[in-house]
Design brief:
By secondary structure, this protein is mainly alpha-helical. Helix content is 76%, strand content 0%. It is built from 3 helices and no strands.
């Protein structure tokens, strides 16, 4: 039962990462705002840049957070 739940969560995470990657590519091609793609609904690249800047501004704590996130996504 737990294996099924874990596999479902992994597949949802993979799908989410694929959707984020697609949103970044679409935003690079079409831009943001009214002339951009209406179904994205936000500035994906700006949000990612903000998260990275926030982690970077916290020094060692930000680096530790990145290490934990990396470990979570690469854990087999």
């Amino acid at each position: 039962m737990f294996d099924t739940i874990i596999n479902t969560i992994k597949k949802l995470t993979e799908a989410g990462i694929a959707l984020i990657a697609l949103a970044v590519v679409v935003q690079v091609i079409f831009g943001t705002g009214a002339a951009g793609v209406p179904f994205i609904g936000g500035d994906v690249i700006g949000t990612i840049t903000g998260i990275v800047a926030s982690l970077g501004s916290h020094g060692l704590v930000g680096l530790a957070a990145v290490a934990v996130i990396y470990a979570l996504f690469t854990n087999k």
